[in-house]
Design brief:
The chain is mainly β. Among the domains are: 86 residues, Immunoglobulin-like (Sandwich), CATH 2.60.40.1080; 69 residues, Immunoglobulin-like, CATH 2.60.40.4270; 134 residues, Rossmann fold (3-Layer(aba) Sandwich), CATH 3.40.50. The protein has 6 helices and 54 strands. The strands form 13 sheets. Strands 14-15-17-19-21-23-25-26-28-30 form a 10-stranded mixed sheet, with no helix packed on it. Strands 33-35-37-40-41-44-46-49-52 form a 9-stranded mixed sheet. Strands 16-18-20-22-24 form a 5-stranded parallel sheet, with no helix packed on it. A hairpin with a 6-residue loop joins strand 6 and strand 7. It is elongated and about 120 Å long.
Length: 698
């Protein structure tokens, strides 16, 4: 008996108004042979009779349906589910289509064996009789089809599930479908703004392991690039070859290809757009030859965990954000000679052990964050704009993500160990935290400062030695941030160079109100000080004047004439170590102060006077804005701190903290003296940790 395609009938019966409604296929079996009669009119029964119905095919590439919905035509070998519908009632059936009437015979079912049928448009494959629980054999070697490759046998005609001959026992009658594909892949094309792009495989279900993209389309027009998502999530390709002539690979073009291992791209390619090779976990190597590549955009190779070999031409100018993020096998990277920009997080969490920055000018925020094996950094003569924490942070919670270079430098580099500042050539990268009194001295020829460089040491005193200000200042370089736009550092500039530094650090932007400085840059220059020359060279006293914006049309600023002089008391410079006096008298009654009538001490820095056993008496003015935590601590021989002055100043104008005066580290006889007329006010307002019991009037 000749094997025939069978339709399994599923009828649906409804009762309405005393009449039964039903629809089903009349014939229990049907044969479609492409070489005899490919078009069939299935006989349909409806109740009531002669109701209109429509047949539909689940796969129009195997079986199509006529426009009137009454006849079906077999197009190629396979199996398709059909439906017939009438007034909301539906029946289902499954059709097998064979290429010729010489298809294999149906074995007898009288031997208690299961039958495995092999459906192939390339000719008949003999069916197999298999004992229950045993395995069928792959018949692929029985037939060769010139110009085609047999990619395997599938459990469904849509080729979604490959049958496993080795591990799948036969426990039912089984139909398997041969997937043939031409040896050379066929492609779809699309024209975008006059340029031709490859738009994926013509038959995406064919499992090509090697894909060589075409140089021209079907009309012999040159290919400009690969369209977005063209090969995204291709489950089979292992090797990709892109020939000469391609200029662009659009976004997500090859993303999520789980088997892709190697990519070779010939010359002339200029752009690899965002996410082009994103999340290809088995990708091991990418090679771009030629001298045309300009830019690798966002996250192109992100999450390519096995990527270990990257070859890029010297023409490359930019590496985009997250481009090689989480490439945890990428230990080496040969920096292109003309590379200028490495954007945010470009190599974050990669396995790099060294990087030569060569002529790179810009490094983005956290560009090498989490590169814990990175121990060698060279080049960098051209560095200008540097984002925040490009090589990590030394804060204890973030140290696990810091580069080895950043962690080792503070231990093994004598210059870094002493100054607590990390440079690449003349670019200041990072200020290490951890000092009791954070103080830094920036070397004279510093050309740029990284974003948030001093953020891990808030309240630091930063002294610039250079008569010329740095040319490039990163975002929030001195602490703070976008949430409050407040500089957290105290910046000391060379005497006589205040205006030059203000002009260099102010960032002026156009707004509806005219030319105005950004909030953060204005806050920064308000924290500029000059060193006050004191009789005791170790005493750190700095002065500043308030800056005001004068003209929003011309962008002019000036020093405020109405504000008093501002003083910062930093304490004692432990690096100078002079013979300390037994009394410290902090007064500012000089010619400069006289010009303003009086002065205000902005603040006395934390740990300003700390652990100095020689100090016995300290004299301070009344008018102090802030006394920071532990400003006075560990003064084991201190007898008194005296506040003097006749300015109209009340204790509530001064902010003190619970441990501004750490009396637990002071002698029990230590006293604070204030003017008699303000004694009760000081006792009321300075009432932390029994401090009020130490306050006396004089």
């Amino acid at each position: 008996m000749i094997m025939m395609a069978s339709i399994i009938m599923v009828g649906v019966i409804l009762s309405s108004c005393g009449k039964t409604k039903t629809i089903y296929f009349n014939e229990s079996t049907i044969s479609i042979y492409l070489d005899v009669n490919a078009t069939i009119n299935p006989s349909i029964t409806t109740r009531p009779e002669n109701k209109e119905y429509v047949i539909k095919s689940a796969n129009h590439s195997i079986v199509s349906v006529s426009d009137d919905g009454k006849s079906i035509t077999g197009l190629r070998e396979g199996s398709v589910t059909l439906t017939v519908e009438s007034e909301g009632i539906t029946s289902y059936g499954k059709v097998l289509v064979f290429p010729s009437s010489s298809s294999p015979l149906i074995p007898s079912r009288q031997d208690n064996k299961y039958t495995v049928y092999f459906v192939s448009e390339a000719g008949g494959f003999p069916a197999q009789k298999i004992n229950p629980g045993e395995f069928s054999s792959d018949p692929s070697s029985l037939y060769q089809r010139p110009g085609y490759t047999l990619f395997g046998w599938y459990e469904d005609p849509e080729y979604t599930t490959l049958f496993d001959f080795v591990n799948t026992p036969i426990n039912k009658t089984t139909v398997l479908f041969a997937l043939w594909g031409v040896d050379v892949p066929e492609f779809n094309f699309i024209s975008i703004e006059g340029n031709v792009y490859v738009d994926g495989l013509k038959y995406g279900f064919i499992p090509y392991e090697t894909i060589t993209l075409p140089e021209t389309d079907l009309a012999d027009r040159p290919i400009y690039g690969v369209n977005e998502y063209a090969f995204s999530e291709n489950a089979y390709v292992k090797s990709l070859i892109i020939p000469e002539g391609y200029k662009e690979i659009k976004k997500y073009a090859f993303s999520g290809c789980p088997e892709l291992e190697t990519v070779e791209i010939a010359g002339e390619l200029e752009y690899i757009r965002e996410y082009a090779f994103y999340n290809n976990e088995n990708l091991k190597s990418i090679e771009v030859s030629g001298s045309s590549l300009i830019q690798i955009e966002t996250a192109v190779f992100e999450y390519c965990a096995n990527l270990s070999t990257v070859t890029l031409p010297d023409s490359l100018l930019q590496i985009g954000p997250n481009a090689f993020k989480s490439c945890s096998s990428l230990t080496a990277f040969d920096t292109p000679d003309n590379l200028l920009k490495i954007y945010n997080s470009a190599f974050m969490l990669s396995a790099l052990t060294s990087i030569d920055l060569k002529g790179v000018e810009d490094i983005g925020t956290q560009a090498f964050w989490g590169c814990i094996f990175l121990e060698t950094v060279t080049g960098g003569n051209s560095l200008k704009n540097i984002g925040s924490y490009p090589f990590g942070s030394y804060i204890i919670n973030y140290q696990p993500y810091a580069t080895k270079w950043l962690k080792d430098s503070v231990i093994n580099n004598p210059e870094v160990k002493e100054d607590k500042l990390l440079y690449i050539e003349n670019a200041l990268i990072y200020a290490y935290p951890g000092m009791i009194k954070p103080e830094y001295s920036v070397k004279p020829n510093t050309s740029s400062i990284a974003g948030e460089c001093f953020s891990d040491s808030p309240g630091a005193i930063i002294t610039f030695q250079g008569l010329t200000p740095p040319s490039y200042i990163g975002s929030y370089a001195f602490g703070g941030g976008s949430s409050d736009n407040t500089c957290k550092s105290h910046i000391v500039v060379p005497s006589g160079k205040m205006e030059d530094y203000i002009n260099a650090f102010l960032v002026v932007t156009e707004s509806p109100a005219g030319l105005l400085p950004t909030a953060y840059s204005f806050s920064t220059v308000q924290n500029f000080y000059e060193k006050w020359i004191c009789l005791d060279p170790a005493l750190q006293v700095f002065t500043r004047t308030v800056i005001e914006w004068v003209d929003s049309e011309t962008g002019e600023w000036d020093f405020s004439a109405s504000e008093p002089l501002r003083i910062l008391i930093g304490g004692y410079d432990e690096r100078i170590s002079p013979t300390l006096p037994t009394a410290i008298d902090v007064k500012a009654e000089t010619d400069a102060a006289a010009n303003y009538g009086y002065y205000i001490v902005d603040r006395i820095k934390a740990y300003a006077f700390n652990n100095d056993s020689i100090i016995i008496n300290i004299y301070l003015p009344l008018y102090i804005s802030v006394i920071e935590t532990n400003a006075f601590a560990g003064l084991t021989n201190l007898e008194s701190i005296r506040f003097r002055g006749d300015i109209a100043w009340t204790p509530s104008n001064t902010t003190i903290y619970q441990y501004s005066f750490n009396i637990s580290q002071m002698p029990t006889s230590f006293k604070i003296y204030v003017p008699n007329d303000k004694l009760n006010q000081y006792i009321t307002h300075w009432n932390y940790s029994n401090l009020s019991s130490r306050i006396y009037g004089e």
